[in-house]
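User: Assemble these into one structure.

Assistant: Restating your components, then the assembled model:
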Amino acid sequence: MTKELFIQGNEACARGAIEAGCRFFGGYPITPSTEIAEYLSIALPKVSGSFIQMEDEISAIGSVIGASWSGVKSMTATSGPGFSLMQENVGFAMMSETPLVIVDVQRGSPSTGQPTMAGQGDVMQVRWGSHGDYEPIAISPSSVQEFFDFTVRGFNLSEKYRVPVVILADEVIGHMRERILLPDKIETFKRVQPNEDPKDFLPFKNVENGTNPMPAFGDGYNIHVTGLTHNELGYPTTINPKVHSNLVKRLVNKILKNREDIVSCDFKYCDDADVVLIGYGAPVRSIMETVKIGRSNGLKIGYLKINTTWPFPEDEIAKLAKNVDDLMVVEMNLGQMVHELERVARGDANVHLFSEIGGTLPKPKDILNRILDLI
Amino acid sequence: MMDENNKNTKSSFITHEEKNPYIKYFRKDRLPTIFCSGCGIGIAINSFLKGFESSELDFNNLSLVSGIGCSSRIPGYINCDSLHTSHGRALSFGTGLKIANPDLDVVVFTGDGDAAAIGGNHLIHAARRNINLTVICINNNIYGMTGGQVSPTSPEGSLATTAPYGSIDTPFDLVDLVAAAGATFVGRWTTAHPLQLSKSIKNGLLNDGFSFIEIVSQCPTYYGRKNNLKTPVSMIKMFKENSINKRRADTLSDEELSAKIIVGEFVDKKREEFSEKIENLSYRESGKDTIRKSAYVV
């Protein structure tokens, strides 16, 4: 039977993690994400899982990577300052192909910023925060229900593609309370074990689809896992240009070649629209209200809700740009995703930015006034 | 029937196995190692494997974890599961590995820079928790991998590429540090004490808690060359002459002990181990031990 709950976003995220199979949490307290750690500190021992509060965010993600190699689905939760501290090991997880989930409940930034207020300053940190070439997966919930659903999806994608996945939430979604429905059955993706004999197994093989099965430590595969450039056996091979290029291209392509499976966005009222609003996370709520008011007043406006901030829905937006005159991204920073939009629209549509910083959601009437200036 | 000459020719090719009884534990396809000739890491690896054998733990159950630096390259040469992580963070990766599967025997290889500078915070917290990790810290008093910079254990006055006028910094005593933080087994030897060292490694492996074994080791390439200790042999001689056993050191004044290396076993006590506490909590709340390798079933 479907269960109905009235809960906080952070709790929905923690419940989603348990349903997705998360059995290890390593974290460090930080507003506005702390309720995720608090909930899991209660829930994990009840499902034979482990919870640890580490000494900082660097060790938090370190413990999560270690736990994942022990064969347990693992996660951490943080906010901007903590996510900054994790960046080096995000790159390690990318390079070592370690599945894990990082929840980033964004707050006003930069620096310590506004701990209890909302922001979306980490969009580009997710994309480029660690050094080098990599393709992140990030999912942005815009409701408490989605914080639950997207956390489950985040675990599934991280296991399927063996990458760290970021649930890019914000303070509004983390702290608001809404009614959610817990589905009867939750689809989970089980980690794939190798079936080769250990002596024939190449743990980092240059396979066509990019993703190899993953043994756990103690399984007898005696694998070497390193952040150094490594060959198919996993051995450091740092001065062979071909080995480096093959490895990094495989890691990038395993995401890019599977865009269709990963990318998710929703179009509404776009077919006849003069202006399409684009958003992700909490501002989607302002956008939906704006479109409702606008349509009831005869304005031809629609919206595009981006669920996967990364990989960016390039094809979908390029197509949209050909059919609409004006695109307006609504985001809670001074303009981050707008640059991606400009790149992808390639002059086919005018790209505008509605920016709101300070910690509160953009107001529909302000967005409407900007639209009226345009048309 | 073999003639005398033939025999001689044969014995002049000594196999790896004949040279080193522990070669069976190596990833032979990765040899030779990257270590400089005369480096103390060879003695450290052999002493570790000797201690490991005498502990009678199961090699198939061993996981090695390391950070960045010369000593952190050791796990890559040993044929068991090995995790070569980011600089200073090996203990946090090891903590997750151990908690998520307490059945594994987890050993962390680290150095003075990796453990005490960039990783100092994780070192004291892992000791505080008394999590069952065995840490082998190869202390050569210098950053070898990056070419000879001053480290948090470099003696005051010693020369390094970033201490061209002699170090003006005060070094850490790693044994005092981890003992104060709560480690339940602490030992220190030098590469001039391979037998005592392997015995302490065995004791550390068998301790159900956080064990820390410091190996004072020679880096002839950088520390020796900069500090007028021209050969590996002269460095090992210096260790031998300057080291003093803990039991004797306890009777001497600070002045008499200056510039001495105090060796021996410093802590060996019992305290509840951390991953066991997590197991107990799981048992209390779910009626079961923590779940193993659940990613493949849930």
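Residues 5 and 11 of chain B are 10 Å apart (CA to CA).
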